[in-house]
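User: Predict the complex.
Assistant: Input components as received:
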Amino acid sequence: MSTAIANPPPGAARDWTIPQRWAGYSQSEHRVWDQLFARQIQLLKGRASASFLRGLDSLRISRGGIPDFEELSDRLHKLTGWRVVAVPGLVPDEVFFDHLANRRFVAGRFIRKPDQLDYLLEPDVFHDVFGHVPLLSDPVFADYMQAYGLGGLRAITFQSLEKLARLYWYTVEFGLIREQDGLRLYGAGILSSFSESVFALDSDSPNRIRFDLERVMRTQYRIDDYQQSYFVVDGFDELLQQTAEADFAPVYDRLESLSDIAPDAIMASCPAPFELVLPEVWF
Ligand code: HBI
Ligand code: FE
C-alpha cells in the first residue's frame, strides 16, 4: 500500500469525481438497467433486508432507467445527509475513505453491456446504485458507512488496510442479517447479483457465521467465486457500535499475533455448529 495518492485521470476533479452526464445515456443503456432491475426485484422480495426494500421505495429507485444522481442525492440527502457522486472507476483507498467520511458515496456511471449482464470487472452503476444506495437511507447503516470511512483513514496510518477491507467485504458487500422471518441479504455484492442472491441464502455449501469484528478481520476472502463464508448480524447497530467506538488500534494490535483464517474455515476453538448460524442454533 503506497502512501502517495495517485492523480485523478484527465477530466476528473481533484477528488476523482466526474459529472454523471445523465442526458448522455443511450436508450439501450437505460434498458440494461431496467432489465437488471426487473430481474433482481423479483428475486429479492423475501430475500433482501427490510431496510433495503424500504430504501428502494423511499428513494424511488425503480425500473425507470438509470437514476439521475442529482435527483437521487436530493432525496437521499433529506433522509440521511448522504449524496451520490460519479467516479470513473475504482478510486484509491484514501480517496474512497475520504468520500465516505464526508457522507458521499462514489458510484460508477457506466453500465455493463447487454450481453454481459453477469460479468463485471469494476463496479458499474447498477452494482453501486441498486446494490449500495438503498441502505444509505437507513440512519444506522448510513452512520456505519461514515464510521467505516473514518476508520479507513486511520487504518492507512496503521498500515492495517487489509484487515479493514475484510470488514467492508464481509459486511457492506456480502453481509447477511437475521430478521424476524429469517436470514436476509444486505450486502450489495449479493443484492446486485442474480445468482449469488439465491446461493447466499439457499445453498447448503457456504458457512453462515455469527458476525464478530475480529473474526471477520482475520478472514481472507475470494473475489473470483461465491463466498464460502457469510457473516450474519442481528442488526446494523451491532456494526455501528463495533466500528464507531474504536479507532481499531487495540484490535489491530491483537490481530498482529493471530493468524489469518481461510475463507472456508470453521474455527477450531469455536467449532461447528456453535460458530455456525443454523435456524435452531443461535447464540
Ligand atoms: N473505488 N469506485 C470505488 N468503489 C469501491 O468500492 C472502492 C474503491 N476504491 C477502494 C475500495 N473500494 C476499497 O478500499 C474498499 O473495498 C475497502
Ligand atoms: Fe460494492
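The chain has one domain: 16-278.
Let me know if you want any component modeled separately.
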